[in-house]
Amino acid sequence: MKTVIILGGGGFIGGHLAKRLKSEGCHVRIADIKNHEFWKHEEICHEFIKCDLTQPKAVELVISESADEVYQLAADMGGAGYIFTGENDANVMHSSALINLNVAHECVKKNVKKIFYSSSACMYPEHNQLDPENPNCIESSAYPANPDSEYGWEKLFSERLYFAFNRNYNLDVRVARFHNIFGPQGTWDGGKEKAPAAMLRKASETKEGDGIEVWGDGKQTRSFLYVDECVEAVLRLMKSDFVGPVNIGSEEKISINGLAQMAIDISNKNIHINNLEGQDFVDKYGFSCPVGVRGRNSDNKLYKEKVGWEVNRPLLEGMKKTYEWINSQVILRDKL
Ligand code: NAD
């Protein structure tokens, strides 16, 4: 039985990954600072160690000698309201860097056979993402580096850390840069939720004839990948010989207003979009509108070439499945 350790398995992607690997017959150990919000431990793993991975002692306990695979997804992160306001910069950098420093070191010490690290598209330079219609996120465009958030800088540092451990200590690593992953069993309210969950929740909560608030002018573009396809892409990358870094995302680019309209259409309600930006935004929230870069889209050429597979499900399909789940969460909350 293959032993896999999922750091951050109490979170969104880690939970889905754990569930999939358990269903495939792996022995799954999760380590996270919190329980999974939506799944019981036994649904996704055999062992759940609740601990703070910024502490070297915790990482020592969690990573066992000669584990087959470690998936490192633990990070202090959230949506635009968490990453781009500047309020959480110090914690985001400090916690995530400490986790990665501990994990890389411990994996070498314990002869872990292979490790996956989840980087982010947020590490790409801002200057290549100013035109919403033509963003450049090819892997080789990463340098000269200029991410637009401290979250992105930490990801860049940690990518380099794992590659250094690969070169100097033969740590067998795979590194992927995720582009906006979404789906059920993820954060859908409270400020750490990402755009798809936020739009779907707002569409679910809003009454006929009212409007939903969209941050910025709504013309900024992104692409969004459904979580099941992300998990499939991670597992295929792990089986391949390609060390990375490589994008894991969708190439189906959409504007944020387009995404909001998709959520509205799925809800089947007569709702309009209210774009909130500039001084109006500052007056309401007390900080500048945290919209991130103007355009971002995954470039999947390298993944296809190196792994020989590609993601292909339409955004609408994943959005419909996610709406069903978020709508049920909204109904449940309103009953309490
Ligand atoms: P998530 O926040 O749901 O999961 C991260 C998990 O890490 C959480 O459960 C959290 O409790 C845990 N964690 C944080 N600090 C910890 C600590 N000190 N000790 C132990 N556990 C700790 O996020 P996610 O969306 O599942 O993302 C997983 C990974 O993928 C993260 O590294 C993230 O940066 C990366 N990523 C995600 C996306 C996306 O769109 N979801 C995009 C790019 C990159």
Low-confidence stretches: none
Question: Which cofactor or ligand species appear?
Answer: nicotinamide-adenine-dinucleotide
Instruction: Tally the helices.
Output: 12
Any guess at the CATH architecture of the largest domain? 3-Layer(aba) Sandwich
| Percentage of β-strand residues | 15-25%
Taking the sheet with the most strands, its summary is: 7 strands, parallel
End-to-end C-alpha gap: 42 Å
Strand order across the biggest sheet? 3-2-1-4-5-6-11
Could you name the CATH class of the largest domain?
Answer: Alpha Beta
Overall body shape: globular
The helix/strand class is alpha/beta
Please estimate the helix content.
40-55%
Could you tell me the radius of gyration in angstroms? 19 Å
CATH superfamily of the largest domain: NAD(P)-binding Rossmann-like Domain
**Overall number of structural domains:** 2
Kindly state the number of beta strands: 13
Order of helices and strands: EHEHEHEHHEHEEHEEEHEEHEHHH
Walk me through what this model shows.
With 336 residues, the protein is an alpha/beta fold. The protein has 2 domains: 3-181 and 226-248, NAD(P)-binding Rossmann-like Domain (Rossmann fold); 183-223 and 253-297 and 314-329, UDP-galactose 4-epimerase, domain 1 (Alpha-Beta Complex). The protein is 42% helix and 16% strand. It has 12 helices and 13 strands. It has helices at 12-23, 41-44, 56-62, 80-83, 89-109, 150-169, 195-205, 227-239, 256-267, 278-285, 301-307, 315-335, and strands spanning 3-7, 27-32, 47-50, 69-72, 114-120, 173-178, 181-182, 211-215, 221-222, 225-226, 246-248, 254-255, 272-276. The chain has a 7-stranded parallel beta sheet with strand order 3-2-1-4-5-6-11, sandwiched between helices. Helix 1 (12-23) links the parallel strand 1 (3-7) and strand 2 (27-32). Helix 1 crosses helix 8, helix 7 runs parallel beside helix 9 (256-267) and helix 7 crosses helix 12 (315-335). The longest helix has 21 residues, at 89-109. The radius of gyration is 19 Å and the shape is globular. The relative contact order is 0.13. It binds nicotinamide-adenine-dinucleotide.
